[in-house]
Amino acid sequence: MREPHETGPIQRTDAIIVGAGFSGLYQLHLLRDRLGLSVRVLEAADGIGGTWYWNRYPGARCDSESYYYSYSFSRELEDEWDWTERYPEHGEIRRYLDHVADRFDLRRDIQLGTRVSGARYDEAGNHWTVTTEAGERFEAQFLITAVGCLSSANVPAIPGLASFAGAWYHTGRWPHEGVDFSNKRVGLIGTGSTGIQATPVLAAQASHLTVFQRTANYSVPARNGPMDDEFKAWVRENSSELRAKAREAPNGHPFDFSDRSALDVSPQERQAIYEAAWERGGLRFRAAFRDIMLDKDANETASQFIRDKIRSIVEDPETAEALTPRDHLFATKRPPIDTNYFETFNRENVTLVDLKTTPIEAIVPEGVRTRDTTYPLDVIVFATGFDALTGPLLALDIRGRDGLVLKDVWAAGPKSYLGLQVPGFPNLFTMTGPGSPSVLTNMPVAIEQHAEWIADCIAHLRERGLDRIEARPDAAETWGAEVDRAASATLLPMASSSWYLGANVPGKPRVFMPYAGGMAHYRGICERVAAGGYEGFSLR
Ligand code: N01
């Protein structure tokens, strides 16, 4: 551990960025290389990559397809990088981000192994002072959080964890050296996207895998595979069009939503359309009809199609029934995609424990004790998700003007203007913050839009000799109402156990956090706000 040097010199730059993942890297490039600002990036990890630095669990790969889960700002970058698989594996994404950092000479302004512990706005000096766990102090006019939406690991407070005699891991803090599961009895808690990706890989490695499921989940096959030369050539040829499509799409993916209602076709035709979408696989299953996310009855047809698939894949009827989601509709929680998830429950060495019928009571030295029995385990893997969106921001202990503390301001749930700024916190920008589309989109699209908007905003201030921008309270109120309205226009708030609502973290306010109005619509709003002289913000 580094020695605190609280009394050491304050390091001053024009801007501080917290985080060196997809967001922080691009924001650094724009502010430094386009605007000529001096910038310091502070990153807690010992390497760049953000989410992809930490999430190295077995089976970890992206659910967006590689050729558009990447930056679009540089055609040269795009042309020189070759993805190997349809869905990039975590190591490949890290290699890509390492390449980006080298190609744009970003590393010299990134300080690794530096966890921010506080950020305080000084009204008189109009600057932010950022302190780190090691006691270093940094000062800058602009503070930009690029801390990710899913970076604060949620390890449930199950009694007895400290007494467990084996090893345990959270998927979002995976050891870099990997974990050897051979001849191990492994317990996996959680069946969200992560648990669903990890299950087949763990089952293939462990002597026995016990999956502890609290909420049964829908999942659609990913249909991963190598990017062959023909497909790569097609991507290169159509790159501009694909990128434009992603930018104009509601969720940042370059695929078309059907213009038909699931209720306007015959049952036979609907079945054929779902079968084709299932065969094609991936997140675009949702696009099979235009109203899957808008109309309960339309959604029910998709939900039922997947329930039938589960029953046809899983051989043991009791296990199939336990794996069948009935308490929420398809994609009202973030929909996972998988490679042989349901098939894995046909293996001899895999057991499903339905926590709805037999909840976990405690972790004991030998394993997990549910109401009915104790499961002896050598390793427990927590795929229990994250304190999403607000967790990583509140961990920074951000204090604005007049002694405002972000934790208090957000005690009843996050409020922001456009998910970009919070009243009372001048010159603080929250990239992909709550109130912006973020997790409802293909993230690089949302990230590029925020990075560019923030860079343009700072350029606007500088060109006019202004040095401060702050969201107005009335604008944040109006935006909060728009975030609520947009969510209510969809089926998304219906899933009561969803992390979009903060429901997975005990005690967290139940507020639908991301903006569900669509990425393209949101982009238009942000552009109009800027074109109108930053309406809703106070500039001086
Ligand atoms: O986390 P989750 P995740 N006892 O919160 C269960 C992104 N992602 O890491 O549903 C028992 O979705 C919990 O149960 P319930 C993606 O956006 C992206 O899987 O709350 N179980 C649930 O089953 C995703 O949505 C990729 O009842 C407990 C699970 O743990 C997001 O990350 C890949 C429990 C948590 O599911 C989060 O996914 C992976 C307890 N006390 C993830 N507490 C890409 O490919 C929680 N659970 C880009």
From TrEMBL:
Kindly list the cofactors needed: FAD
Q: Which residues form a coiled coil?
A: none
Q: Name one GO molecular function term.
A: N,N-dimethylaniline monooxygenase activity
Per UniProt, the keywords (alphabetical) are: FAD, Flavoprotein, Monooxygenase, NADP, Oxidoreductase
Q: Keyword NADP: yes or no?
A: yes
Family recorded in the similarity comment:
Belongs to the FAD-binding monooxygenase family.
Name of the protein this chain belongs to: Cyclohexanone monooxygenase
Could you tell me which species this protein originates from? Methylobacterium terrae
